[in-house]
Amino acid sequence: MAWFSKKPRIATAPEPIEAPSRMQGLWAKCENCDEILYRQELEKNLNVCTHCDHHLPWPARTRLATLLDPDSFEEFDKELEPQDPLGFTDSKKYKDRLKSTRKTLGENDAFISGVGRIDGKQVSVGCFVFEFMGGSMGSVVGEKCTRVFERAHELKCPAIVFSASGGARMQEGIFSLMQMAKTSAAIARFRNVGKPYISVLLHPTTGGVAASFSWLGDVMLAEPKALIGFAGPRVIEQTIRQKLPEGFQRSEFLVEHGMLDAIVPRKDLRAKLGQIIGLLG
């Protein structure tokens, strides 16, 4: 046996384990201005920095509970779970990655769907869980999103989708890419009802999600400074070998160039959705 394969004769002392601080979890740092924020105050302000108004990530279930009428949300399709049709493995088996993410987040996949009310008016609604594998769209996410539009068609009510995604889920290959056409076809059928589809683009909305149902809304809204586009700015710069304009693919840039209808701060979003539904719904 080679000398380097033998275990050391002198045991090394284990590294000391730091006891968790009582203050852990009480504070958050703004990723924009680096200000240290009291988490309770941050949550009261809808996860918007009280110093620079930067919109920090907001949990999907909290978003739905806040924007919809109290206790009006009824979740559907919660039992749907992604499978591993390709037996995909990278640094970790896909099925193991799914299992650990489910255990950590308590969610079966990266999308929550159901029915709720805004100002008393019924809506079919879906929201991405970006923390679940970057909000990537696999077969289950595509199916649940499709059912948002099918349910809106059946109930003859408006549809709302809050998108935040890194794009298609590579671990499911063509099964993931098929969801782009599937969701778009569901929107085309929903058009016959004559009710609005409101697409709310969050940070970030990219890849196959941006290239399909997220850009097909009758009304296109976005949060401030959200990154929205198919490929990211760095990939585009490397491809075309040119420097992109300042703020390229941010929601402010897209509004200026006619790609979005409005940028709506988080505190105003519920009122804006109610206004749109009142006018078009």
UniProtKB/TrEMBL annotation:
It catalyses: N(6)-carboxybiotinyl-L-lysyl-[protein] + acetyl-CoA = N(6)-biotinyl-L-lysyl-[protein] + malonyl-CoA. GO terms for molecular function: acetyl-CoA carboxylase activity; ATP binding; carboxyl- or carbamoyltransferase activity; zinc ion binding. Residues 26-281 form the CoA carboxyltransferase N-terminal domain. GO terms for cellular component: acetyl-CoA carboxylase complex. GO terms for biological process: fatty acid biosynthetic process; malonyl-CoA biosynthetic process. A zinc finger (C4-type) spans 30-52. Its cofactor is Zn(2+). It holds the Pfam family Carboxyl_trans. Zn(2+) binds at C30, C33, C49, C52. It is an enzyme of class 2 (transferase). Signal peptide: none annotated. Its EC number is 2.1.3.15. Keywords: ATP-binding, Cytoplasm, Fatty acid biosynthesis, Fatty acid metabolism, Lipid biosynthesis, Lipid metabolism, Metal-binding, Nucleotide-binding, Transferase, Zinc, Zinc-finger. Binds 1 zinc ion per subunit. Its main location: cytoplasm. It comes from the Bacteria. Pathway: Lipid metabolism; malonyl-CoA biosynthesis; malonyl-CoA from acetyl-CoA: step 1/1. Component of the acetyl coenzyme A carboxylase (ACC) complex. Biotin carboxylase (BC) catalyzes the carboxylation of biotin on its carrier protein (BCCP) and then the CO(2) group is transferred by the transcarboxylase to acetyl-CoA to form malonyl-CoA. PANTHER family: ACETYL-COENZYME A CARBOXYLASE CARBOXYL TRANSFERASE SUBUNIT BETA, CHLOROPLASTIC. Belongs to the AccD/PCCB family. This is Acetyl-coenzyme A carboxylase carboxyl transferase subunit beta.
